[in-house]
């Protein structure tokens, strides 16, 4: 066979460029999922496509309603305690009542838009009032810091691989979840409250900062930061300092730092410390202005604003407040359209002097809410 014939045969055997591209799996587009107590019968999960937003023609942002129908609505009686939500991969996990141990963990799969029933929270996690969750290596680690005077452990929720040899076809297609305890004696004093946490770039270590709720208590440190290595199931002390942000910090590769939001609305970055042991407070930088569009005393919920990292150096800020001209008490009772929800997407970088600054913002959105609970701040997940 001639070389030209062989070349033509190879050309027929191999897919053309556009055919090969068509056969490659499409990368799933991510969306912003907002969990709100904005329904008189319970909670709603709203799905927003922020990458498709366009600027208003006149350049004036007009408040609008959240898109209907909601991705999911969850009925919950008003006489029950507030629910608790967390995320794992492309799933949103929630417990309808954080104080009742009979309630199972419900799992909403955002990829298939399906709802499944998971395991029940373990007694070590109840009540869920002050718990914090962190995802490490596709496993959800949960810890209740308020149980510091007891023998504590991380409770780990994970997805068990499906049994392909299972005879029952219903069992083969159903996700199976497991809950296990990882012994991790708490390093915190019972007066200390966790205020911030962030996952190290290694993907297996979480840093946790706590402060003393009772500074006048003799012999107890004012604040401190530890790290927990999930592989070794061991805590390490790093010093009497705190990470500068509130709640969760996000590692941004382009900045080689954690980024989070302060209570006053300023963004801040924090260099990632060594995992080796005690050290001084890492270098921190503060944004040039507050990111809040509303005054703090107008915020609804605690906290009234939430930050999420959505990749490629971009962040999303969600802020809920009483509308202008509406009294705070009237805004939260649901009698009028008294609340506004601001959703802002922006980039972040260091300027020429090494200071933290925001880059050009994408079009933002403001939504009118007829109900917004002060006891349940908006939750946000990017998946």
UniProtKB/TrEMBL annotation:
Q: Which residues cross the membrane?
A: none
Composition bias, kind Basic and acidic residues: at what positions? 1-22
Specify where the region named Disordered lies, as residue ranges. 1-27
> Sorted alphabetically, which InterPro entries does this protein's record hold?
DUF1668_ORYSA
**Pfam hit, one:** DUF1668
User: This chain belongs to which protein, by name?
Assistant: DUF1618 domain-containing protein
